[in-house]
């Protein structure tokens, strides 16, 4: 596994902190600005106030940089190369202001940076996001079961409302089709809504079997069912645990990718606390 | 009294007693009976692999031949337990390999089994006969190769619903030509095609084969030749039940093959059904006692035609395509029916797209006097229907109702379904297992606590108003063994006040409830024979205030102490300083009594 190499951008400059990766030079020189990298390991700080300003790209926006990235970056430098300054203030304030592990996107959106040396940056594979689509994407609730709305001192105010949205008509007692995001996910199925993890209680084996079966039996039956769940396991280098993802809840690669990012962003905890 | 019968006589008497419950009772009679019993116990069932250590089991029962182990909590079936949680079987296999080389049977459910474990099994137990892996994971077809190569006396290989890394279909070639003892083979979970000619050879040389469950990759046109090798089959799971286009010669060879199976009593499989091929099974329908069409996407009329020919069905699993009208037909023709399961064809769709409602279940409850076990997914329910079901069928022992949309009220009155479920527990006095759904308040739990005295397993989701609900259940259900709860507003008090109850149960699961971390700690410290495990993927729970609710909580009784294989997202609430907390607990208890 190639170690992640961090590209930090400060004031418009690209600084490569790596002993060797010519490919990175190409990236930084050849219009990285057109591409958007994703850092699944969360080496960017997802709770820094600064980074929250960078909304979904405005692509040439090298200035909107997460300066606190330095604090958590992995280095592949030669001995004697500059070591990052630890921003201690950052760690003490973040606990008050932001959730430690916002598993849902804060209003800002995706954090920038980090390209791994040999691996294709995520940005290579997508064109860019439309802000609205991402922010409205509250339908993805893949690994979280909906939490009761309880006051958490550490919780961002957006959290409860998002949690409410994702709970299947928690206190309402009616069928709630009030998820704008869900509609975009469900695509051709406006009557479906954000899926609650583990509900209805059907084993993955059965869900996957039905998914395969319904594909092949398309014209057979009245009241043809829509797509059912299709679970796959996702494993990310460096992350200690696998995750299960229901591919049917995403209609585009971007949605899947952002959901995966959220899912794996919680693994940054270990790194942050270690420092 | 103990000296009335010599040991040998007692041993002989005990050998007639098979049930685990009775064996456990025998061991409690006296010390000498305990000693005699333990030395001749052959079979053991361990409902929670973390409740006891392998060493303890082996020390007590040195003559074991059969072991059954269950690992992950039941809600793991629905992705509520993160990967890596645990349930590894390897340490058990290692211990038994050394100490119980004559072990013959291993049955596992929801456990992690590696190829290494399989190899150890294959090489350690010379007389190994039965391997059953239900909903297990962690192994590949490589592991199956070692089993096939080494287990000369293997009788059963059952991989039901396991998640197998299917690397190659050639593992089945590893059964040597001299191997002839197969009785039961279930490979329905495999994704890829197994080597068909090897399979055919295997079937042909195993005269005792009774159960064969194929996977969907086995083409239908191969089924007749497979069946011709084992016409003595009692249970068959077909592969895919269609061909690209209907081929009359396939149909006729199927008819011939099925007609040759005179003992066939149970049918399943039916992945991707082409209805024109269904008549092939008509000849065996009158003998069928078990029919699983729960993967078959076919219309109600085809289902009814098929079931209409199966008057002796005891067990029927089907999709909601059967519709109310189909269930009425079942009620009319299957008078011996004991178990009904109706699965949703499209769980995520909210609109009622299928004409299956509560009426179907009511008609079956009315028409099938022997109905005991129900699993029913539907979109609407009423208290009146539940009441009717309860009065029609007081002999129900398992009742699991899943109304697809959480918090759905009685569709006629818009009231909660409290009284309907209340009728169920009141009339069905032998009810052992119950799953709730729909709009429910604390009242339903009051009913359950009052009436469900034989209840052993209760599953609750999106229900209740307050801690009272949980308190009713924990204080009222005397035989409760397993309780699993998700998304209910149950918190600390009911749990703490009923802490002693938890030691009488196998396990309690609570997720997305309101149990605080502080309460978990208290419980862990106060109850040394309970393992209180907090599952929280967002970080260590002690980095947040004690009054923060935990994500998921799994509490189980154990004499093995906290387990040693917990992943990073599971925390055990074990602490040595238990004394100072007794005051806290007493305070909470006093408060609660004043409610």
TrEMBL record, chain A:
Position of the signal peptide: none
- PB1 domain location is 229-275
**Biological process GO annotation list?**
auxin-activated signaling pathway; regulation of DNA-templated transcription
Q: Which GO terms describe its cellular component?
A: nucleus
Predominant place of localization: nucleus
Q: Which residues form a coiled coil?
A: none
Location in the cell: Nucleus
Q: Which domain of life is it from?
A: Eukaryota
Known PROSITE patterns for this protein? PB1
Keyword flag Coiled coil: no
Q: Which UniProt keywords apply?
A: Auxin signaling pathway, Nucleus, Repressor, Transcription, Transcription regulation
Function summary: Aux/IAA proteins are short-lived transcriptional factors that function as repressors of early auxin response genes at low auxin concentrations. Repression is thought to result from the interaction with auxin response factors (ARFs), proteins that bind to the auxin-responsive promoter element (AuxRE). Formation of heterodimers with ARF proteins may alter their ability to modulate early auxin response genes expression.
Provide the assembly information.
Homodimers and heterodimers.
Entry's family note: Belongs to the Aux/IAA family.
Listed PANTHER family: AUXIN-RESPONSIVE PROTEIN IAA17, AUXIN-RESPONSIVE PROTEIN IAA8
Protein name in the entry: Auxin-induced protein
- State the species of origin: Trifolium subterraneum
TrEMBL record, chain B:
F-box domain location is: 5-46
Q: Mind telling me which SUPFAM superfamilies this protein's record contains? A: RNI-like
Q: Which CDD domains match?
A: F-box_AtTIR1-like
Keyword field contains Nucleus: yes
Q: Which Gene3D superfamilies match?
A: 1.20.1280.50, Ribonuclease Inhibitor
Assign the protein's first listed, main location to one coarse class: nucleus
Name the InterPro entries for this protein: COI1_F-box, F-box_dom, Leu-rich_rpt_Cys-con_subtyp, LRR_dom_sf, Transp_inhibit
Q: Cite a single GO BP annotation.
A: SCF-dependent proteasomal ubiquitin-dependent protein catabolic process
Query: Quick check: keyword Nucleus in the entry?
Result: yes
Q: Can you quote a single GO CC term?
A: nucleus
Q: Which UniProt keywords apply?
A: Auxin signaling pathway, Developmental protein, Nucleus, Ubl conjugation pathway
**Pfam families, A to Z:** F-box_5, Transp_inhibit
Task: Identify the pathway.
Answer: Protein modification; protein ubiquitination
Q: What is the residue range of the signal peptide feature?
A: none
The GO terms this record gives for MF are: auxin binding
Any idea where this protein resides?
Nucleus
Q: What is this protein called?
A: F-box domain-containing protein
Which species?
Answer: Trifolium subterraneum (Subterranean clover)
């Amino acid at each position: 596994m190639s170690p992640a190499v961090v590209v930090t951008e400060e004031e418009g400059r690209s600084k490569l902190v790596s002993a060797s990766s010519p490919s990175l030079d190409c990236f930084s020189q050849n219009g990285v600005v057109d591409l958007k990298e994703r850092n699944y390991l969360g080496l960017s700080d997802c709770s820094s106030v600064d980074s929250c300003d960078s909304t979904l790209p405005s692509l040439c926006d090298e200035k909107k940089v997460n300066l606190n990235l330095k604090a958590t970056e992995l280095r592949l430098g030669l001995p004697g190369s500059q070591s990052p300054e630890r921003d201690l203030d950052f760690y003490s304030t973040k606990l008050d202001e932001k959730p430690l592990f916002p598993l849902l996107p804060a209003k800002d959106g995706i954090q920038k940076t980090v390209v791994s040396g040999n691996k294709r940056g995520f940005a290579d594979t997508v064109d860019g996001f439309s802000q609205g689509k991402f922010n409205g994407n509250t339908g993805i609730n893949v690994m979280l079961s909906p939490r009761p709305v309880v006051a958490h001192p550490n919780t961002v105010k957006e959290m409860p409302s998002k949690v409410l949205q994702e709970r299947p008509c928690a206190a309402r007692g009616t069928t709630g089709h009030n998820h704008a995001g869900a509609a975009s996910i469900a695509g051709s199925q406006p009557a479906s809504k954000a899926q609650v993890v583990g509900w209805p209680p059907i084993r993955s084996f059965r869900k996957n079997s039905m998914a395969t079966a319904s594909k092949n039996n398309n014209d057979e039956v009245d009241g043809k069912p829509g797509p059912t769940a299709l679970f796959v396991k996702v494993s990310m280098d460096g992350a200690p645990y696998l995750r299960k993802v229901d591919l049917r809840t995403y209609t585009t690669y971007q949605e899947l990718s952002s959901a995966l990012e959220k899912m794996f962003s919680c693994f940054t905890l270990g790194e942050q606390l270690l420092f | 009294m103990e000296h009335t019968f010599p040991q040998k006589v007692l041993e002989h008497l005990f050998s007639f007693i098979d049930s685990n419950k009775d064996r456990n009772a025998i061991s409690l009679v006296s010390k000498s009976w305990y000693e005699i019993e333990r030395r001749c116990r052959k079979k053991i069932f361990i409902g929670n692999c973390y409740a006891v250590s392998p060493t303890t089991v082996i020390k007590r029962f040195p003559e074991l031949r059969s072991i059954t182990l269950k690992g992950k909590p039941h809600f793991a079936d629905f992705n509520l337990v993160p990967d890596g949680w645990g349930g590894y079987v390897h340490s058990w296999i290692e211990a038994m390999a050394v100490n119980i080389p004559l072990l013959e049977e291993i049955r596992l459910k929801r456990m992690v089994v590696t190829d290494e474990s399989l190899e150890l099994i294959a090489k350690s137990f010379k007389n190994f006969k039965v391997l059953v892996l239900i909903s297990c994971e962690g192994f590949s077809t490589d592991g199956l190769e070692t089993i096939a190569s080494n287990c000369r006396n293997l009788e059963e290989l059952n991989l039901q619903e396991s998640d197998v890394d299917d690397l190659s279909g050639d593992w089945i070639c590893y059964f040597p030509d001299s191997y002839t003892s197969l009785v039961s083979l279930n490979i329905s979970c495999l994704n890829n095609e197994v080597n068909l000619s090897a399979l055919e050879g295997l079937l042909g040389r195993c005269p005792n084969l009774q159960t064969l469950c194929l996977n969907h990759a086995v083409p239908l046109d191969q089924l007749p030749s497979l069946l011709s090798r084992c016409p003595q089959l009692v249970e068959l799971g077909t592969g895919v039940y269609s061909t690209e286009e209907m081929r009359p010669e396939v149909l006729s060879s199927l008819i011939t093959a099925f007609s040759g199976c005179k003992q066939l009593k149970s049918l399943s499989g039916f992945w991707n059904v082409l209805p024109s091929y269904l008549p092939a099974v008509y000849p065996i329908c009158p003998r069928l006692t078990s029919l699983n069409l729960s993967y078959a996407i076919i219309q109600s009329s085809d289902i009814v035609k098929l079931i209409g020919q199966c008057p002796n069905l005891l067990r029927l699993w089907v999709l909601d395509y059967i519709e109310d009208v189909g269930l009425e037909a079942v009620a009319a023709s299957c008078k011996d029916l004991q178990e009904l399961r109706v699965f949703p064809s499209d769980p995520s769709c909210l609109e009622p797209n299928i004409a299956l409602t509560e009426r179907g279940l009511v008609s079956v409850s009315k028409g099938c006097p022997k109905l005991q076990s129900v699993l029913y997914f539907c979109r609407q329910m009423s208290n009146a229907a539940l009441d009717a079901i309860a009065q029609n069928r007081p002999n129900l022992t398992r009742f699991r109702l899943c109304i697809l949309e959480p918090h759905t009220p009685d569709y006629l009155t818009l009231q909660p379904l409290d009284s309907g479920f209340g009728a169920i527990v009141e009339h069905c006095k032998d009810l052992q297992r119950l799953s709730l759904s729909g709009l429910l308040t604390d009242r339903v739990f009051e009913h359950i606590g009052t009436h469900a005295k034989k209840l052993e397993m209760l599953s609750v989701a999106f229900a209740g108003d307050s801690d009272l609900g949980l308190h009713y259940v924990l204080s009222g259900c005397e035989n409760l063994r397993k309780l699993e709860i998700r998304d209910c507003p149950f918190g600390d008090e009911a749990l703490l006040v009923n802490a002693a109850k938890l030691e009488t149960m196998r396990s309690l699961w609570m997720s997305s409830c309101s149990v605080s971390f502080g309460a978990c700690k208290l419980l862990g410290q106060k109850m040394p024979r309970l393992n209180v495990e907090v599952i929280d993927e967002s970080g260590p729970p002690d980095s947040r205030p004690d009054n923060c609710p935990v994500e998921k909580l799994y509490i189980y009784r154990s004499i093995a102490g906290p387990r040693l294989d917990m992943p990073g997202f599971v925390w055990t609430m074990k602490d040595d300083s238990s004394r100072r907390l007794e005051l806290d607990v007493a305070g909470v208890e006093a408060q609660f009594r004043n409610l």
